[in-house]
Amino acid sequence: MKKFIRAIFALLLIISFSSCSSNKAKGEQTEKIIVRVGHNQSQNHPTHLGLLEFEKYVEEKLGDKYDVQVYPSELLGSQTDMVQLTQTGAINFCVASNAILETFDDVYEIFNLPYLFASEKSYHHVMDDKSLTNPIFNATEKSGFVAVTWLDAGSRSFYTKDKPIEKPEDLKGLKIRVQQSPTNVRMMDLLGASASPMGFGEVYTALQSGIIDGAENNEMSLTDNGHGEICKYYSYDMHQMVPDILIANIDFMENLPANERKVFEKGFEILNKKQREEWAKAVKKAKKSAEEMGVKFNYPNPSDFAAVVAPLTEEVLNKNKKLRPVYEKIQVYNKEYPAQGGAK
Ligand code: GCU
Questions:
Q1: Given its phi and psi angles, is residue 288 left (phi above 0), alpha (psi -120 to 50 degrees) or beta?
Q2: Residue 252 CA to ligand 1 centre (angstroms)
Q3: pLDDT at 340
Q4: Which pLDDT does position 1 carry in this prediction?
C-alpha cells in the first residue's frame, strides 16, 4: 500500500511539473528548463549536501536557463523506479546504488563482488580511474542512461536484532535484507542466510515487524535511517564496498551544447568532492551516535567471511567474461594499497 501511494505521489509530481519553470525577473517572462535529480537519502546525508553544491554551481553558471531541483527521500520513488524514470527522461538524473544497476546492465556486477577491494584506498583509486570506470559508466547508452560520477557509500556489514554475527555460521537461517541484486542474493546463499531483497525505504518497517532479522549496510543506515533503533548489533565483517552512482538520461546529456556540458561535468566533479568530504565526517559521527543509541559494534574476522563467499567471484567472472580484465586491473590497485587492518 505504502509503495502504491508512493508511486502515485511520484507520478503526480512528475505530471504536475512541466519541464519548464517561469522566470519573471526584470519583468520578462522566460522559461527555464527544470533539471530533476532524485535520490533516496535524507536531507542531512552527504549525497544530498553534495547535490546541493551541484545545484548551486550549475545555477551560478547557467541559472538563466536551468532550474536544478533535488528530490531526496524517495520522493520520486525507490531507486529502481528512479532509474526507470531517468531512462525514459521523465527525470534527468538519479543516484542509484551500483547493486541495483546490475539488473540494468551486467557490467555493474563487478563492483558488487564481495571483498573486491583490499582497502578503502584501493576502492577510491579504482573508482577514480576513468580508464577503468568510463567503459562501465558508458555501457548503458542503449538503455537510455549513462553514469556521470560515483559517490562514497562506505563499506557494508551485517546488523541484526537479536545477536551479533561473530562468524559466518551465525548467519545461518537468518532472514537478511539485501539490495535487489542477484549477486547479493547469491552471496547470502553462500553464507547460509535467507536473502530478502527489497528497496531501502521498506527496510525499517520490515525490521520492526519482524519480517527480517537484520540487514547489511554502512553505519549511516543505523542513524540516518533509524535502523539502529531496532538492530543493536553491528558486526564489521565489511563484505562489500558498493559505490553509489549518479546516472543521467542519455538524451539530456547528448543534447547539451558543448559549453553547457562542460558546466555540468564540472558540477559532477564538485558533487563527487563535496559528497566524499562530507561522507568521511558523517560516517565517523554515525558510529558515535549509534553507540549512544545503544548499538554494539563488534569486530569479527573478515577473512572468515571472505573464504565462504570466495566462489562467487569466480562464478561471476566465468559467466561474465568481459569483467575479467577489469578484475585484473583492480588487483593491481589492491597490491599497491593492501589491507590496513579492520574497522577498529
Ligand atoms: C546505501 C546506499 C544507497 C542504497 C542503500 C540500500 O545507503 O548509499 O544507495 O540504496 O544503501 O541498501 O539500499
A1: alpha
A2: 25
A3: 82
A4: 45
